[in-house]
Amino acid sequence: SFDDEYIREFNRQLDEFLEKADEEYLTSSNRYFETDERRLIARLKKYRKNYFMWLSDFSLPTTNNLSERSLRFTKTKQ
């Protein structure tokens, strides 16, 4: 895993990023993707531990490609 200092810095930068995303969302006049933007920001805030758990445990995969590949055959059979 990454050391504690690296993880703290990552989380600090992520907090800054999410704050900036909130500010830009509120000040943006373009509302074309408004619901998608809001949902993405909220999802990152709510599930941030799940999304970035691989920072502290390298045995976890960073993507879900393996599970998607496993389901692909079943889905194409439908």
Fraction of residues in β-strands: under 5%
Oligomer: single chain
Globally, the shape reads flat
Low-confidence stretches at least 5 residues in length (pLDDT < 50)?
Answer: none
The helix-strand sequence is HHHH
Q: Largest beta sheet, briefly?
A: none
Q: Report Rg.
A: 17 Å
End-to-end span in angstroms? 40 Å
Kindly report the average pLDDT value.
85
Q: What structural category do the secondary elements indicate? A: mainly alpha
- Number of H- or I-type helical stretches: 4
Report helical residue fraction.
55-70%
What does this structure look like?
The protein has 78 residues and is mainly alpha-helical. It is built from four helices and no strands. It has helices spanning 4-27, 34-46, 48-51, 65-77. The chain is flat and about 45 Å long. The mean pLDDT is 85.
What are the salient characteristics of this protein?
78 residues, mainly alpha, 4 helices
Outline of this structure?
By secondary structure, the protein is an all-alpha fold. 69% of the residues lie in helices and 0% in strands.
